[in-house]
Amino acid sequence: MENATKALIIAGGMLIAMLIVGLLTWGYTQLRSLQQTNIDEEERQQIVEFNERFEAYNKKVVRGYQMISLSNLVYDTNTRFAEDDGYAPVTIEVNGLSSEKAEGEDLVNYIQNYYDTMSSNQKNALKQLYFECTGVEYDSRNSRVVKMTFDRVNVDNNKGE
């Protein structure tokens, strides 16, 4: 009888131990799932913030001085975020920017290569131009903006922006 009692105590102890291990495993799984959800939400928020900086230029009327700011933003972004880390470089294509190359001018290269060599009159003329965003492309892997396309447009100055 004594052995049977000890066997029941041991079996009860084992059952309690298995319940505790099961609860700990379940709790760890729930904690890990919650942490992964937080990480995913943080990544989504970072993508939204990344895209918002560019989507601010996705409008019908964008002034030349805003395009210069956009070019600087793209240059800074491409410098800061490496392709090795999964970031595709952002490009800005502008149709009708210059007379030498009217179709598909890369704005960042244009600003980096030509802007410093322009006279102040040419810089002012560029700042007074108007552009329209005609397309935004997103990276299929992470939904970040990778390309924006603009067309130069003529705007009646009497109508305003």
Protein described:
This protein has 161 residues and is α+β, with helices and mostly antiparallel strands. It has 2 domains: 1-55; 58-153, no CATH class. Helix content is 54%, strand content 17%. The chain contains 4 helices and 5 strands. It has helices at residues 2-55, 64-80, 107-114, 120-127, and strands at residues 62-63, 91-95, 105-106, 130-138, 145-153. It has a 5-stranded mixed β-sheet with strand order 1-4-5-2-3. The longest helix has 54 residues, at 2-55. The N and C termini lie far apart (96 Å). 12% of the residues are buried. The mean pLDDT is 86.
Mean of pLDDT = 86
Helix-strand topology string: HEHEEHHEE
Report the end-to-end length measured between terminal Cα atoms. Answer: 96 Å
The main β sheet shows up as: 5 strands, mixed
Flag low-confidence runs: none
Can you count the beta strands?
5
Residue share in β-strands: 15-25%
What is the radius of gyration computed over CA atoms, rounded to a whole number of angstroms?
Answer: 29 Å
Count of DSSP helices?
4
Structural class comes to: alpha+beta
Approximate shape: rod-shaped
- Counted up, domains total 2
- Cross-sheet strand order for the largest sheet: 1-4-5-2-3
Percent of residues in helices: 40-55%
